[in-house]
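Apologies for my clumsy wording, but can you show me some protein sequence, whichever is easiest, together with the matching structure tokens, please?
=====
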Amino acid sequence: MPKIDVVIPLYNGERWIAQAVESVKRQSLPVENIFVVDDHSTDRSVDVVAKMEGVTLLKGTHKGSATQTRKFGLKHCQSE
């Protein structure tokens, strides 16, 4: 079975991030790592993610660029 890592970019997604992470966890293939990359959110998104088990919170460095935020997260992946 392949190892799978998931990267979720996050910017002010307090209302949706828990649902997104739970959706990943319910997938038929097991996920090795879930990385949520915060891109300088100003709401309580980071607080929500910090309370989640099995999720690694990363601080993005490219404010406003979803593409760069994803690339930053991919650098932390160890899956195939």
